[in-house]
């Protein structure tokens, strides 16, 4: 697994705040709220605004109650349930996120298919974890800032689910960060974890009504590291042309 790339080294940081991006972000909004896309749907752009779509599978891992379903809803812009319930099986959701590549100013729509599986279902059915890991591109390991045990379990999850030889992007996400008065995880522990594991830790918490500000760092990092991972893989396979402006590193929806 490659080390994370520095933020903003491959894509234009905070591009979602620029006037240039508005026409692209309008395609994932409806009446100023996020559109809900089906598995086979994609944003339709006018001819003068070409943007290819690249697809990636993202598995959300974590103990029951840490907020896996809430994070998926937050990233997709969907309603977040007020009451916690255990995901009974496997749920998938789709997130579209446009970015601008720094090197060639090309705009891409990243299609993230999020996989969320309940912990009890994972334990009961042996095929669940292999299904989530099959052809996965990135894994988000979740813990709750209000549950220190979930943070201690992250290293075990990472060792159990992934192998150093896996070509997969790994991020850790701390949920319920807005409940800072009740936090059980300290900043020094977060810093130490990042130093030991070499994996960045993201924090989420607030309300989705505030726009893209909270979710943008995580979605940008996913896009940036997944694109970089594909380019590195293409280069090692003697196919450097895959990352040229006229091509992409995987199946493209035009």
TrEMBL record:
Keyword presence, Protein transport: yes
Keyword list, A-Z: Cell projection, Cilium, Cilium biogenesis/degradation, Cytoplasm, Cytoskeleton, Exocytosis, GTP-binding, Nucleotide-binding, Protein transport, Transport
GO terms classed as biological process: cell projection organization; exocytosis; protein transport
Molecular-function GO terms, alphabetical: GTP binding; GTPase activity
InterPro entries, per database record: P-loop_NTPase (IPR027417), RSG1 (IPR039677), Small_GTPase (IPR001806)
Main location: cytoplasm
Localization, UniProt: Cytoplasm, Cytoskeleton, Cilium basal body
Family from the record: Belongs to the small GTPase superfamily. Rab family.
PANTHER family for this protein: CILIOGENESIS AND PLANAR POLARITY EFFECTOR 2 (PTHR14983:SF1)
Name this protein carries in UniProt: Ciliogenesis and planar polarity effector 2
Species in which this protein is naturally found: Pygocentrus nattereri (Red-bellied piranha)
């Amino acid at each position: 697994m490659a080390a994370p790339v520095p933020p903003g080294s491959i894509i234009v940081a905070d591009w979602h705040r620029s006037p240039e991006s508005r026409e692209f972000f309008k395609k994932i909004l409806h009446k100023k709220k996020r559109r809900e896309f089906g598995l086979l749907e994609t944003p339709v752009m006018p001819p003068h605004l070409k943007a290819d779509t690249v697809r990636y599978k993202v598995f959300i891992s974590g103990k029951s109650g840490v907020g896996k379903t809430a994070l998926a809803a937050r990233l997709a812009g969907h309603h977040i349930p007020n009451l916690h319930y255990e995901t009974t099986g496997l749920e998938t959701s789709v997130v579209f996120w446009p970015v601008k590549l720094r090197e060639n100013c090309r705009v891409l729509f990243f299609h993230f298919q999020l996989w969320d599986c309940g912990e009890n279902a994972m334990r009961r059915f042996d095929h669940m974890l292999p299904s989530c890991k099959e052809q996965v591109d990135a894994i988000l390991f979740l813990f709750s800032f209000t549950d220190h045990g979930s943070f201690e379990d992250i290293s075990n999850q990472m060792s159990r689910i992934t192998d150093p030889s896996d070509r997969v992007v790994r991020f850790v996400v701390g949920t319920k960060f807005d409940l800072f008065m009740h936090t059980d995880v300290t900043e020094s522990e977060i810093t130490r974890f990042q130093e030991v594991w070499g994996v960045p830790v993201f924090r989420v918490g607030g309300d989705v009504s505030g726009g893209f500000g909270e979710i943008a760092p995580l979605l940008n990092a996913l896009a940036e590291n997944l694109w970089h991972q594909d380019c590195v893989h293409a280069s090692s396979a003697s196919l450097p042309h895959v990352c040229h402006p006229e091509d992409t590193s995987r199946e493209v929806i035009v």
